Amino acid sequence: MVTTMLLCSVLVLLAPTMLMALDSSQSSANGVPGSTSGTGNVASHFEPQVAILCDSSARGPEAYHPKYMSEQGEWASDLYSKAACFKDKMDILNYCKKVYPKRDITNIVESSHYLKIASWCRAGSSPGAQIRGKCKTARWVKPFRCLEGPFQSDALLVPENCMFDHIHNQSNCWSFSRWNSTAAVACQEKGLQLRSFAMLLPCGISLFSGVEFVCCPKHFKGDSFMKDS
Ligand SMILES: *[C@@H]1O[C@H](CO)[C@@H](O)[C@H](O)[C@H]1NC(C)=O
Ligand SMILES: *[C@@H]1O[C@H](CO)[C@@H](O)[C@H](O)[C@H]1NC(C)=O
């Protein structure tokens, strides 16, 4: 069961000019504490994230209050913000800034996987509703990660027999899903299949001009899937 895993990030592979384009965040990416205040005293798995539920029942669309990741690492219902399904990227970025006012939130990116989140509160829920167990809805959603400070690319796990690669092109300022399919095609062209990927080089709100990815042999089985940050 012992497999060799490498943790790869494109930061260490890009040419020096590209490193400068990515700005000065490398020191914190390499483990030297960054200067961002308020990040040193929380559990290392905490990451600012928000989740918005867009759901409809037989009676039509249902509005739910948004949720955010608390510093204790739990999904909290935000009963002080309007219950709504908001999809606009600017609205999601502004929402991140609102729930994490002390953090330097600069961008958002879709999470790389769906999560089942419980206890969604319907519009009109009072603060006591959650305590009284009235928020019962559980749904699979794809949260948004609220990115802090200068952009840092994620580290990806590269299992044995798999390969790490990246594509970047400043003229392609694309969404997460477009880079997902671009990476999938790149793996297919090598006769492999896309296992994990992460965005590079932000060029707008939730827009990026590159992707790093791991391709594995088809039907590859392994347990550890993706490291999130
Ligand atoms: C990437 O695209 C594939 C195929 O459309 C989809 O199944 C997968 O869920 C996408 N990955 C993410 C992380 O969104
Ligand atoms: C970048 O993308 C543009 C537009 O899709 C394409 O014309 C160009 O050849 C690409 N550059 C590189 C270096 O791949």
From TrEMBL:
Leader sequence segment: 1-21
The keyword Membrane is annotated on this UniProt entry: yes
Membrane topology: Single-pass type I membrane protein
Record's keyword annotation contains Lipoprotein: no
Domain E1 positions: 44-218
The entry's keywords: Disulfide bond, Glycoprotein, Membrane, Signal, Transmembrane, Transmembrane helix
SUPFAM superfamilies referenced in this protein's UniProt entry, alphabetically: A heparin-binding domain (SSF56491), Amyloid beta a4 protein copper binding domain (domain 2) (SSF89811)
Region (GFLD subdomain): 44-152
Gene Ontology biological process terms in this record: axonogenesis; central nervous system development
Subcellular location: Membrane
Pfam families: APP_Cu_bd, APP_N
GO MF terms held by the record: heparin binding; transition metal ion binding
Region (CuBD subdomain): 160-218
Family stated for the protein in its record: Belongs to the APP family.
Protein name: E1 domain-containing protein
Taxonomic classification: Eukaryota, Metazoa, Ecdysozoa, Arthropoda, Hexapoda
